[in-house]
Amino acid sequence: MRRFAALALAVLLGWSAAAQRIRDIDIRVELEKDGSAWITQHWDVQVTSGTEWYIPIGNLGPMTVSSLSVSENGEAFQSLGDNWDVDRSREWKTGKCGIVRKHNGVELCWGQGEYGDHRWTARFRVTGLVQSLDDADAFNFMFVNPGLVAPPEHAKVVIVPAFDGPAWTYDNTRVWGFGFYGDINVRDGQVVAESSEQFSYSSKLIALVKWEKGVFEPAVVRGGAFEDFLNTALEGSSYGEDDDSGWFLVLFGILFIAGFGLVLFALVASALGYKWKKSIFGKTKITGWWRDVPLEGNLLAAEYLLDKGKRFSVGGQPQGLIGAYFLRWILNGALSVQPDPKSSKRVNLLFKADHVSSDDVEEDLFQMARSAAGSNQLLEKGEFEKWSTANYKKMTAWPERASARGRSWFRDKGYFVKDDVCTPAGATEACHLVEFHNFLKDFTLSGERGSAEVGLWKDYLVFAQLFGLADKVAKQFQKLYPAAFDELARSTGMDTTTLIYTMNWTNSISTRAFTNAMTKAGNINGTGGHTSFGGGGGFSGGGFGGGSR
């Protein structure tokens, strides 16, 4: 019995050692202005049977595949064009390659040669890969098939431009990945999709990439809205589901890619105060105080500076801007604070106005909150957060509009040499925002603070909410000027305790609402990160199977 078990184990180990393997698939896609592509595949494999290696590519529609070339160890294979014969012997196929035309696509084929390890390079042309939609240019293409002769142990696709044009960034390029566990990102002007674990038999690698109009001039016009194109791919996917591990992996990946030294430098420089972009502020460290409300009280201009002006931050804090608007509406009487009959520790907000601003960015936020309040126009516990989750597209798109409008304020004032580069006068105005933050933060230390008018205090508190300092500044005001602070609270229909609590509450609901929207979105907006194993419907290219036969 023991001899039989040992023999069986030896056979099993021998079979395993001789099994087909696909160690790595490395694909480079070079895109041309008209949407055509040269695709280069590097295969690192072990073959133990069959006469040829083949790759099915179907679902082509208006696309065409041609010009296959294959090489190994620098030796080019003889190209037979469309005259490949799958029934010939292994010896005949060795050193040759060709294409088999099918009714729904093609098979790219080449001879395997001797059994054992091989590292082939296959290159071919695909016309019409990027296609024109009504509002974007895009493709949804399967680069690695399911059902290969062996599950790939690793796969990577790098997509690059082969023409002069605007650099690919998340401003003009969005990405989604389907069918495999890994990540897809826009990095250094390229789109990179890479697996993080071995494929299964059903794994595949589908990349969906969207560019804004103007990056390409596609020869193939598909038509239709990109949203419909995307929704087909998202059906059955995990995009939009809560996934804390995904956010952790994205964060870890960012830190890993950036490098420990760079991260350490950023942390130290930021802690020392060198955290502002010189192109906007004229300097990287801003230490002074400014006692007047900056930027003519324009919150959108302030948010633009906080979003685009930090040297080491990937963005501002939109929830601070949302909270600042809520507080402004309360202080100006557009909202009134109502006790919550269900809890003495909560308040509700009653909408007293139908509109608040001629600025569509502020007005849209007001109307979103008003819609969340429902027919009774009373914003109660959890309503704004729930609305933001259900309407995450509107909520997550709003901060970009807000920052863009703030940039327009600087442009209209003539404060730019070019976008995001300030004139000396513009840099001075920009510095006043940080100096005002310093003043509010150190208010109790200022020997020249004076006694501010109650009317100014409202603006002070609104900007303090933007900075995340509202409750601290309010308590300082109350301590230094109790009578005046009591007058401010009474002017809003509240006592001082309720006013301070309301500042905390508006900050809290703004944070939860925006966080809920971002969590729901995941990277559904195409801003990179983890991929979805499910979904990917509507893809072009690809097929099922491939490898040795």
Can you give me a brief rundown of this structure?
By secondary structure, this protein is of the alpha+beta class.
Q: What would the principal axes of the Cα set say about the shape?
A: elongated
The number of helices is: 16
Number of E-type strands:
24
Strand order of the largest sheet: 5-4-9-2-1-12-15-14-22
Terminal CA distance: 37 Å
Secondary-structure-derived class: alpha+beta
**What fraction, in percent, of the residue positions are helical?**
25-40%
Give the topology, please.
Blueprint: H1 2-17, E1 21-31, E2 37-47, E3 52-58, E4 64-72, E5 75-76, E6 78-79, H2 90-93, E7 96-102, E8 105-111, E9 116-127, E10 131-132, E11 137-144, E12 155-161, E13 173-178, E14 182-187, E15 190-195, E16 205-211, H3 226-234, H4 244-258, H5 260-271, H6 278-281, H7 299-308, H8 318-331, E17 335-339, E18 347-351, H9 360-373, E19 378-379, H10 383-390, H11 392-412, E20 416-418, E21 421-422, H12 424-441, H13 454-467, H14 470-480, H15 482-491, H16 496-521, E22 529-530, E23 540-541, E24 547-548
Parallel strand pairs: 1-12, 6-7, 11-23
Antiparallel strand pairs: 1-2, 2-9, 3-8, 3-24, 4-5, 4-9, 7-8, 10-11, 11-16, 12-15, 13-16, 14-15, 14-22, 17-18, 18-19, 20-21
Helix pairs in contact: 7-11, 8-13, 8-16, 9-10, 9-11, 10-16, 11-16, 13-14, 13-15, 14-15, 14-16
Structure description:
There is one protein chain. The protein is an alpha+beta fold and 549 residues long. The chain has 2 domains: 19-237 and 531-548, Immunoglobulin-like (Sandwich); 255-263 and 293-521. It is built from 16 helices and 24 strands. It has helices spanning 2-17, 90-93, 226-234, 244-258, 260-271, 278-281, 299-308, 318-331, 360-373, 383-390, 392-412, 424-441, 454-467, 470-480, 482-491, 496-521; strands spanning 21-31, 37-47, 52-58, 64-72, 75-76, 78-79, 96-102, 105-111, 116-127, 131-132, 137-144, 155-161, 173-178, 182-187, 190-195, 205-211, 335-339, 347-351, 378-379, 416-418, 421-422, 529-530, 540-541, 547-548. A 9-stranded mixed beta sheet has the order 5-4-9-2-1-12-15-14-22. Helix 10 (383-390) packs parallel to helix 16 and helix 13 (454-467) packs across helix 15 (482-491). The longest helix is centred in the last third of the chain and has 26 residues, at 496-521. The radius of gyration is 30 Å and the shape is elongated. The model is unreliable at 1-17 and 242-270 (pLDDT under 50).
